[in-house]
Specification:
Blueprint: H1 2-36, H2 38-45, H3 49-58, H4 62-77, H5 79-96, H6 103-131, H7 137-164, H8 170-189, H9 197-201, H10 205-228, H11 234-256, H12 270-285, H13 287-299, H14 305-333, H15 335-354, H16 367-391, H17 397-435, H18 445-454, H19 462-506
Length: 518
Amino acid sequence: MSRRVHSSDLQRQGYVAVAMVMASILTAFDVRTASIGLADLRGAFGLSFDEGAWLSTFATAPQILVAPSIGWLIGVFGVKRVMIGPSILYSVISVAMPFAHGFVPLVALHALRAMVLGIFVGATLLVAFRNLDRKYWIFALSFYVLRIPFAQNLGLYAAGSYTQTIGWQWLYWQGAVVAPVIGILFWYGGKQMKVDRELLDRADWGGMALFGVALTTLYFALDQGNRLDWFRSGYVVSLLTATAFLFCVFLWHETRVKEPWAHISILRHRNIALGFAAIACFMIASLGSSLLEPNFLLSVARLRPEQIGDFTAPYAVLLLVAATGTAVALVRTVKQRWTLIIGFTCFAISAWLGTQLTSVWSLPEFRMIVILQTFGEEIVFLAAVATLFSNVNPARAISLVAYVQVMRLICSETVATSMTTWVRQREQLHSYLIGLHVTGTTPGWSSTIIKLGSGSAQATPRAEVLKRGVGVLATIVQREANVQAYIDGFWITFMAAIVGLIVASLMKPSPPHPLTTR
């Protein structure tokens, strides 16, 4: 009888584990493919550039409105009540979205869908810790981390392939296929729980509302900041001011309420604060593969997303399995601090390789960078999150999960938009500096212009040749300015990796925890 019960419980845990992995990967994959396929969506829906930018913001920002509080909701209502309904809703919305007409209905559907995605990824960690045996926690966490390189590598390939083969509608319909399976798995695997009336009566509704609204407002400011030129836009300044005010009210509220939901004091623990600092360094260092490499290949090498994915897709599964296995083994053997040092070393080497960038680089030259980045992402993030949970008081785990969600969305958006702005401004600077040395007084100017503009034509008027030559030269200057800008971006990621090494060296040894012991 006991064997039968054990077998049944093991099967239930398996359902939960698979559902959790699918939910976290679906969220990251969906956001990535929608971002890469935004140009195709603008064309399909007939949207302007500004409307497309707003659509992208509304498709992500509402995640942070609900994600921090999902852990608490699962603690009160249980995984079945929280997860099954949104799975069905997500599937229905995803099926309907390609048939939406008009900008406002489209934005509303994207916002609602983003809230459901926030429920999926916000629930992952608490679902694992509440429904799985302790010995499986490290594997659940490793698959949670897996979503990052998985979405970066395969999401790029999928987004380009959909529009070229089966249709742009599958940017939405891919989720409609997966979400019902997630709901079914949670139905069979989730524990039957009674509503925790005591925890519900002590709910800090004001804190959850203030925190979610403040972070959502900040996300809107960050996502639109690069397009609207940051502090030169009254809209962005207003949003940042509102964010500061709401966050101050939140901090004041958490000191006044009897049982605060996510009090900032949780960050006073040395290893927890350093763990979040390590995640921030990770977010910057990982931009080499998530932003700099694909953007360079798109803007300088002129490749399409599915061409970029042609390198990563065939090897991604083996690479991810190897990186995940390595990360788990390191956390279990050399523990978190040395694991972080190894991971940030991978980031530093890959970033240094990126600083050797030239205009002739294409997919093969990025191969080692992608491999090192993938290992670095798995190793660092797994070790950092393991550090957080092995140092927190279990009674405050829900508060910790709320701040993990902040790092996942707000920190990642901050570093991505900052890097985009940095690359744009550095391109302008390098274009100006290169232009100072390319003038009519430069030796060999006339012969170079004629050579660039003549091409294969034999009897072209001289004026036309000169005009064409100047155009070709301007393109070359812009290309080289872009190369220098991306090199500057890789130097930023290199410095982030070095800071990450310093942060890891300042950590104390973490206490024994199920995540780090066999």
